[in-house]
Design a protein that fits this description.
Structural class: alpha/beta
Oligomer: single chain
Order of helices and strands: HEHHEHEHEEEHHEHEHEHEHHHHHHH
Largest sheet: 5 strands, mixed
CATH topology of the largest domain: D-Maltodextrin-Binding Protein, domain 2
Strand order of the largest sheet: 2-1-3-10-4
CATH architecture of the largest domain: 3-Layer(aba) Sandwich
Strand content: 15-25%
CATH superfamily of the largest domain: Periplasmic binding protein-like II
Number of domains: 2
Length: 338
């Protein structure tokens, strides 16, 4: 009888364990099935967007029940096309694009709901090392600028004018090179100065191809340089999803704010497999020091007005669009209160 009892007990124990494993596996599968898919189209792959990659790598999106598919769609026009055509749910792109779309008479405007970066992300790089740089030194020189109508170009011209330089009169300004080929053009000998994003600027400096001498981000002040946006209809029909998305971004922004450049670089390294870890650390530190990463997702009215001023100075503001027309801060304010 005792022998039978032991065998029965063992069988019962094994049965319980197997049932638990099956139940656990079923529960995990159900949780995975419940994850809501969100398609993000980012305008470029850049360390400048570190908080976004932190939200993915640290599992902040998954904590909110979201399954993120991230696609790089080079150029603001391509990113907006992806969003408007339904190829993406959310776009990470410069806020100026929402103004361009609105000015074309869209019945379903693109709304900025969470800001990611709050300064320009480009740097002035010279071919020769300059110890005591002044903006006056650019006069009469060949300057390799960014694409006309984009935020880098508009900020670049805004900063030049701020320092008394007329971009199209005082410089030999080159703007007919595609964004993806600007760095290569400079490396091959075009221009004496160039406006570059990181990590290219730091890589050039390390390789002796150029020298970082000024920051356009420091010079231009706070501006909604890159924001998450979605069509108005999508936000209205997916309020809870957008709230979860914004909460994940806010968690990432707070994480970035409270961690070192080295820790941030390690957290995002999977997105930049071909970039030297030391370069990544340098880039993150540079962006952190100049306050490029927004510490919360709220795009405030002063930043919006600064954006319009920069666009207007460049002759690229199609119409004056009120802050509340294309910016929704209710979601960000709600999640921050909690």
């Amino acid at each position: 009888m005792k022998k039978w009892s032991k065998l029965s007990f063992s069988f019962l124990l094994i049965s319980i364990l197997m049932f638990s494993l099956i139940a656990c596996n079923k529960d995990t599968n159900q949780k995975q099935e419940k994850l809501q898919k969100i398609r993000i189209a980012e305008v470029t792959r850049s360390i400048f967007y570190a908080p976004q990659y932190v939200a993915i790598s640290k599992g902040f999106f998954k904590e909110e029940g979201l399954d993120i598919t991230l696609t790089t769609t080079p150029g603001g026009d391509k990113t907006m096309t992806a969003l408007i055509s339904g190829g993406a749910d959310v776009a990470l792109v410069g806020s100026e694009t929402s103004i361009y779309v609105y000015s074309q008479g869209s019945n379903d405007p693109v709304i900025n709901f969470a800001q990611l970066t709050q300064t320009d992300g480009t740097f002035l790089v010279s071919r020769e090392k300059i110890d005591n740089f002044s903006w006056e030194m650019l006069k009469g020189k060949t300057f390799l600028g960014q694409r006309k109508g984009g935020m880098p170009q508009m900020v670049g011209e805004f900063v030049l004018k701020k320092h008394g330089i007329a971009p199209h009169q005082d410089l030999n300004l080159i703007q007919n090179i595609d964004f993806a080929n600007i760095a290569n053009a400079f490396a091959s000998g075009t221009g004496e100065f160039v406006q570059l994003f990181e990590p290219t600027a730091s890589i050039f400096e390390k390789e002796g191809k150029g020298y970082i001498i000024a920051s356009f981000g420091k010079e231009s002040g706070h501006v909604p340089y890159t924001s998450f946006m979605a069509k108005d209809s999508y936000i209205k029909n997916n309020k809870e999803t957008i709230e979860k998305f914004t909460r994940a971004i806010y968690k990432a922004q707070q994480w970035v704010e409270t961690h070192s450049a080295e820790e941030i670089a390690q957290a995002v390294e999977e997105f930049f497999p071909d970039t030297d870890p030391e370069i990544m650390k340098t880039v993150v530190e540079r962006y952190k020091n100049q306050g490029s990463f927004a510490t919360n997702p709220i795009l405030d009215e002063e930043e919006w007005n600064n954006l319009k001023n920069i666009m207007n100075e460049a002759g690229e503001l199609p119409q004056d669009v009120d802050y509340r027309t294309l910016v929704n801060t209710e979601i960000a304010e709600k999640i921050m209160k909690k």
